[in-house]
């Protein structure tokens, strides 16, 4: 179960990293030399960490496993 969760969380975090980095690159850079790459990586890293923390609340891609029902012996 944890392997599926970690895989889904990692995929989501990498996508969020890319989205944050692209959003930062697109704000005011006219040529590649104008890009502040440290700031781009910083924004991407913040997005990555945020996505991983949000994944702790649950991922819709990974269905929750129900705990086994207890058998009550009478």
Task: Note down, in words, how this protein is organized.
- It is a single chain.
- This protein has 74 residues and is mainly α.
- It has one domain (2-55).
- It has helices at residues 2-25, 37-55.
- The radius of gyration is 19 Å and the shape is rod-shaped.
What brief labels describe this structure?
74 residues, mainly alpha, 0% strand, rod-shaped
Number of beta-strand segments = 0
Mass-distribution shape: rod-shaped
Distance between the termini: 32 Å
* Whole-number count of domains: 1
Q: Per DSSP, what share of the residues sits in E-state strands of 2 or more residues? A: under 5%
Output the number of helix runs.
Answer: 2
Which regions are unreliable across 5 or more consecutive residues at pLDDT < 50? none
Largest sheet: none
Task: Report the order of strands and helices.
Answer: HH
By helix and strand content, what is the structural category?
A: mainly alpha
Relative helix content: 55-70%
Instruction: Tell me the radius of gyration.
Output: 19 Å
Average pLDDT value?
81
């Amino acid at each position: 179960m944890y392997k599926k969760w970690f895989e889904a969380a990692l995929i989501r975090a990498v996508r969020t990293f890319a989205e944050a980095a692209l959003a930062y690159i697109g704000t005011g850079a006219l040529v590649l030399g104008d890009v502040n790459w440290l700031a781009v990586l910083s924004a991407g890293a913040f997005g990555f960490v945020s996505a991983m923390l949000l994944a702790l609340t649950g991922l819709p891609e990974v269905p929750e496993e129900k705990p086994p029902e207890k058998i009550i012996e009478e």
